[in-house]
Design goal:
- It is a single chain.
- By secondary structure, this protein is of the alpha/beta class.
- The chain has seven helices and twelve strands.
- β2 and β3 form a beta hairpin.
- Bound molecules: zinc ion.
- Zinc ion binds next to loops.
């Protein structure tokens, strides 16, 4: 985590590099993986944990050697249980190596990091899914993870994504999340919207829309 660094700078740099290789991303940021102190996973699906590790000489090792990896305790327990029933490749190559090296920080819903970072439980897509809120005193920015996938779900929060584990809970979480941030200055950073993927939540009928105007 970059301390004393404006979030807008970090996000702008990341947004410009999302489609590129990891090396290019770090070049954009002027960082190396060793500079990263915290990695926060909203949930443990394969497309949200893929950079946790890298394959070195046939072994999956942490990509960020000096980082603490923040996982929801409930999410990890769910993944462990699921993997015991049927092997989950992403869990085995991108999560388990972190846990075995003692680099995982398993956190409860009340987790916070200093007075700038807080966890917001957003279950439904997965049982332990969380959003991360950034900002001192108020949520200046929130990272949604997969509580939403496409803009249409803002207008119609009752629409589920196919992989929502608990569709009813996912619908409730989605609406309460957008109600929480509706017509506030909080910048909402989605994981799967097309660019620009970050905006502010505004009301639209009995649903919501994203305002990208800045
Ligand atoms: Zn997901």
């Amino acid at each position: 985590m970059l301390q004393e660094q404006p979030f807008s700078y970090c996000l702008g740099a990341v947004a410009g590099c999302l489609q590129t290789a990891q090396e290019k991303l770090f070049r954009c940021l002027g960082l190396t993986p060793a500079d990263i102190h915290y990695v926060m996973c909203t949930h443990l699906h394969s497309d949200h944990v893929g950079w946790n590790t890298q394959l070195v000489n046939g072994e999956w090792v942490p990509t960020f050697p000096n980082a603490r990896y923040v996982f929801s305790k409930q999410e990890l327990e769910w993944a462990q249980t699921a993997d015991a029933k049927e092997p989950l490749a992403a869990y085995r190559d991108s999560v388990l190596p972190i846990v075995r090296k003692g680099m995982a920080e398993l956190v409860e819903d009340s987790y916070g990091l200093g007075d700038h970072v807080r966890l917001l439980p957003t279950p439904g897509h997965t049982p332990g899914h969380v959003a991360f809120c950034f900002g001192r005193g108020r949520d200046e920015l929130v990272v949604t993870g997969d509580l939403i996938h496409v803009p249409l779900q803002m207008r119609y929060p009752e629409l589920n994504f196919a992989r929502d584990k608990d569709p009813k809970l996912a619908r409730e979480t989605r609406r309460s999340f957008f109600e929480r941030y509706c017509d506030t200055p909080t910048l909402c950073c989605t994981a799967h919207f097309p660019p620009p993927s970050a905006g502010r939540v505004r009301r639209w009928g009995d649903g919501y829309r994203m305002d990208y105007s800045g």
